[in-house]
Amino acid sequence: MQDSTSDSRMAKQDQNARHFEEHRETDDTSEKMSPNKNLKSPQKGSKRLKTAPFKVTLLDSAVFEGEIEKHSKGQTLMDMVCEHLNLLEKDYFGLTFADTDTQKNWLDPSKEIKKQLRNSLWHFAFAVKFYPPDPSQLTEDITRYVKP
């Protein structure tokens, strides 16, 4: 009796395995036959976001490093730096970068970063852009004590 039970289990497992194989082959065939734009060529993988490494020298000379999508605007990087510093009052600060002539430029937050840089290195400096006329009106203590 036990032999017939184990035989029926094995038969069921074989049947399930064949069913799985049949469907897998069908799925493989349909993937090969369908004009799916995601399967253009075997060399190309799935569409990945292209990122660029960046370095930002902070006011205390510490360096904040990371990666950002290449098509990001300056505001995205500024937000990342301010988040790293726990800084809420962002309007007084900005990011600078050196031109090929070592000319210091402010990164425009509304434009793509890659369109503003002439070199491939994404090195920036976090800097004070505006000094408030009355620092006591700053709402966050951390903003007041960020040292230039």
Automatic annotation (TrEMBL):
PANTHER family: 4.1 G PROTEIN, BAND 4.1-LIKE PROTEIN 1. Residues 1-51 are annotated as: Disordered. This is FERM domain-containing protein. One of its GO terms (biological process) is actomyosin structure organization. GO terms for cellular component: cytoskeleton; plasma membrane. Residues 32-44 have a biased composition (Polar residues). Residues 52-148 form the FERM domain. Residues 9-31 have a biased composition (Basic and acidic residues). Pfam families: FERM_N. SUPFAM superfamilies: Ubiquitin-like.
